[in-house]
Write a structure and sequence with these properties.
- Helix content is about 55%, strand content about 15%.
- It contains eight helices and five strands.
- It has helices at about 15-25, 30-40, 45-50, 50-70, 85-95, 105-115, 125-145, 160; strands at about 1-5, 25-30, 75, 95-100, 150-155.
- It has a five-stranded parallel sheet with strand order 2-3-1-4-5, with helices on both faces.
- The longest helix has 19 residues, at about 125-145.
Amino acid sequence: MVVVLIGYMGSGKSAVGRELARKMSLKFVDLDDFIEEKEQKSISGIFSEKGEIYFRKTESRYMEMLLSDTEDAVVALGGGTPCYGRNMDVLLERADQVFYLKASVGELVARLGKEKQHRPLIRHLSDEALEDFIRKHLFERNAYYLRAPHVIEVDGRTIAEITGD
Ligand code: S3P
């Protein structure tokens, strides 16, 4: 059984994924961590040294590798993973369940404002610019995210509530 979590940065994919994996007695795999381990470099380092296009190609390759080699796991993808190339098709084909953790713009601004630093796409933005960026970016990305068969609203909900307590 492979369960995949998708959603914008800060929507809680890793925290929810870890707890869901524990409850389902599955292992938890985070694609960003998997990429960092394979490339021996941080995601920020890959962005700054090789650029976003290299990152997106690498990310797609590792997503396919992970989904074809993994049998029983909860997998958290990166916020952009479903939105490039054929990734959303591949993942709908390979995963048993795909959940979109859906957070509102307001919730994301509140969560991400506090931790922009290690996120290459938003670290350069002022607090004022962050909301506009997220609003536009989420609008574009929702076209991909909303193809997930299951949508879970996360605003104001604890991890225990989201994972079904
Ligand atoms: C990205 C999200 C990040 C990471 C990279 C790009 C994005 O993952 O893959 O910084 O394009 O939204 P998280 O969603 O786990 O922060």
